[in-house]
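Subject — a protein and its fold
Encoding — discrete vocabulary of local shapes:
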Amino acid sequence: MRDVARSSQGEASVTSAERARHQPVRVAQIESSVTHMGFAAFSLIDVTRNLRTFFAIFDLFLGIFGSLALAVASLGIINTLVMAILERRREIGVLKALALPIATCGNCFLPKRVSWVGRRHIRRNPGWAIGRAIQFGTMVT
């Protein structure tokens, strides 16, 4: 085959050859033997290897982007809680001066916590209901 591929211009030459393999275990062995013969070898295993590398880098990028978003969100939450404490500093000082237990001081923040949880459910539940309606609509038809 090598002689046919490297023939002079007057004779016919082979530009490509295909070898179908149904056992993927031996593909690497066949590919290396074809490469050692002096030909270029290509297999779908090479493509999947390149795709795995691409998606690994893409996942890394998304992980970095997500961790950055998580860090910014956590700073926002911490800032909100610190500001809530600083706004109620005088109230907390009066409650501690009256020798109330710490649990009672914590209850002065309860309305704010309840409003956060309530707003979260008000925002999330309609979206969940719309999603379930769309899912039901697609399953019926």
